[in-house]
Amino acid sequence: MLVQTRRSAGPALGLFACMTALLAALGASCSRQDATIDLVAVGYASWRPTTEVVLDYEIPGHMDSLRRIVMNETGFQFKEGPAGVSFPEGTVIVKEILLAGSGDGYGAGPAYGVGGADGSRGRPNMITAMVKAKDDPRAQGGWIWLMKDPESGMESVVGQDLCYRCHLNANEAYPYADGNPAGQFRDFVFFVPGKDEPAP
Amino acid sequence: MAQLSLSAKINAIVVSTLALGLGAVAVAYTASVVRARQELTSDALNREAEILYSSIENFMMVGEAPVAIRFFSDLRNVGEGLQVGLYRRDGMGAFIDNETIETVNLNLMRPRFAPKSAFPERVREPERPYFDAAAGMPPETVQFRWEEGGRSYERLYRPLLNLPKCTACHGSDHTVRGVIDLRTDVTQFLAAQRSVVAFSAGGAAALLAALAALITRFIHTIVVRPVRSIGKVCGAVTSGDFTGRVEVARRDELGTLAETVNRMVEGLYERYELTKYVSRGTLSSIAGGQEPKRVQRTLLFSDVRGFTSYTERHGADAIVGVLNKLLDAQAGIIQAHGGDIDKFVGDEVVAVFSGDDAPYRACQAALDIAALSSRAAEFDGLMVGMGIASGSVVQGMVGSKRRADFTVIGDPVNIAARLCSAAKAGQTLVCDCSYDAVKDRPELSFSGPYKARLKGKAEAQRVYLLKAADERREA
Questions:
Q1: Is residue A152 in some structural domain?
Q2: CA A30 and chain centroid, separation
């Protein structure tokens, strides 16, 4: 009886393949990006504004661009007590930059947001949002700070502390609306509904 | 592709596997060390930047800009490893003139701060494009490696924001007020890091070499050496040496294989010894099939003359000794001429020749056997008579299932036997069929034809007497 011994590189190749797959998986896990997020509802434009003040005055970050701030109904359930103002989980506040401004601010660019004679609004130059999710690892000060691309609708978390550090001033006296003269905790929100009258 | 030996393949697999495994571990270890160093440095820089940021913010809010200036001045020489600086958003060094003081006083509409008359030295230009990223929109904290004077630094640009509460003094027409510049000397860290990398690489290489040597040695002992031993024994058997045995005192697969090979060699040796007692035709029939077939053959019979009376005069040992010597001499001659010993029957030899020149070779063998008479003393005076016949015979296994001979049967066999009986000592009688086949050969000479009555044949047969060499010379 003749027995043919098949000489094969199979085991060695298998070993190399396993190690390569392991390294590839390791590399893939290291380079994996955050999944696409979708925290701002498509119909946010119909939400109620947080203030009636015309926000076209100059501020760091947005300069003199026209801003419009709206909030979902969850946010309007905020509570105010001795410790200050507190917005519930799930609150979403959206700030549209509608009118091109000058200077170095966010939203500078073509005047897409100029309204028509019939009161209709144009397309925003820029959309920013804050979402209350205090246990989310991406949150700063209990809020996730977002930018939403008006063209693609893609959302991205702002990892730097520009938004957070600026809104941190809302918890002490600041130059907007009523100015928070008592330095009350306002949960990082400058325009709390009902507190938008400028200080006398 | 060149064929690699088993040892080379094992070495290659062991070394490549270890290299991959240890290499991956070494790379992972080195990467983790480098990453840990980078993270530690980065964390320290960011923490220090945060402390500075908070310090500046708090000095400014209470209107203590001069304290902030002194604070930065003191920090500049806090230690050799850490250097601190502050840029305005336009890239100029902070506190180098009265521009900021004038702006603040203008925004406050009162001379809150008195202009200075002494200023620190101008600082060097910031590193771009890192600075532009830190002072642009959106402002980003930027960390980068920086080399100067043969030393390496991790450097961090931290944007200082123009917060809402800052706008009263600094105005609201900009978002970034300045950039904090922190640099820490990492030259020693990098040297240590290089040492770790070199040590890891060297250690991995040394470990690889040691493990490869150990594993290869181990595999060589348990696999390669037994395989080679088995191969050596098999090679010796191929060369006809059946004395070798595989010495593997193990109970694993290779031990079992070695035992099997040893048993196989013993069996082969027994079969090899048995081949001495059977004809080549028998051996070839075993390999080529045992079906009977009709073939052309030449038969050579030889028989010792006067052997019966010889046995009566000598003892058994002497008889067997002389007979074996004579039979062995005949067998050697027959095989030398390509004949096959079909059988020994007492003092008789039956040989079969095949092929086109079988009659010629049979006659040559008969002449050489007849020439043994010159060595008559060696065979105690015993001589043989021979008969040669050619023709169609049936060749095949004859006998029972338990014991059979591979032999030939047919009329030429009977004729050769009868001619052998009729031949006198030293004579070879040849049938006319064989004669016709060799009569034109100049090396052979015959006398005859003679008429011979053979047992079993109704008519007298024409036979020829093959002449011995000396007889030819005399003729």
A1: yes
A2: 25
Return the closest-CA partner of residue B247 out of B262, B231, B267.
B262
- d(CA B202, CA B210) in angstroms, rounded, equals 12
Q: Which of A103, A168, A169 sits opposite B174 (nearest CB)?
A: A103
Q: Which of A5, A104, A178 to mutate to test the interface with B (most CBs of B within 10 A)?
A: A104
Q: Is the pTM of this model over 0.80?
A: no
H helices present in A32-148, as ranges: none
Answer for the pair A198, A174: CB distance below 8 angstroms, yes or no. Answer: no
Residues B398 and B345: their CA atoms lie apart, in Å, by 16
- Vertex A30 angle, CA A28 and A34, to 5°: 90
- What would the pLDDT profile of A45-104 be if each residue is shown by its tens digit? 899 999 988 888 888 888 888 888 999 999 999 999 998 999 999 999 999 887 666 656
Verify whether the Cβ–Cβ distance A105 to B137 is below 8 Å: yes
pLDDT at residue A32 in the model: 45
**B303-328 tens-digit pLDDT:** 998 888 888 888 888 888 888 888 98
Of the candidates A89, A86, A124, the residue with the CA atom closest to the CA atom of residue A107: A124
Q: Give the DSSP letter of residue A45.
A: G
ipTM confidence score: 0.77
> Could you give the CA distance from residue B26 to residue B33 in angstroms, rounded to a whole number?
10
Assigned architecture for domain B6-192: 2-Layer Sandwich (3.30)
Q: Is the dihedral of CA B275, B281, B283, B286 positive or negative?
A: negative
- CATH code of the domain made up of B292-474: 3.30.70.1230
Question: d(Cα B18, Cα A14) in Å, to the nearest integer?
Answer: 15
Residue A14 lies in a domain: no
Instruction: Report the C-alpha gap between B127 and B109 in whole angstroms.
Output: 36
Distance from CA of B419 to the nearest CA of A (A): 47
Q: Do A58 and B173 touch (CB under 8 A)?
A: yes
The overall longest dimension of chain B from CA atoms, in Å, is: 164
CATH 3.30.70.1230 positions along chain B are: 292-474
Question: Residue A76 belongs to a domain with what CATH number?
Answer: 3.50.70.20
How many whole angstroms separate alpha carbon A159 and alpha carbon A146? 9
A87 domain residue, yes or no: yes
Minimum CA–CA partner of B14 in chain A: A12
Which range marks the domain in which residue A116 is found? 42-171
Instruction: Outline which parts of chain B fall under CATH 3.30.450.20.
Output: 6-192
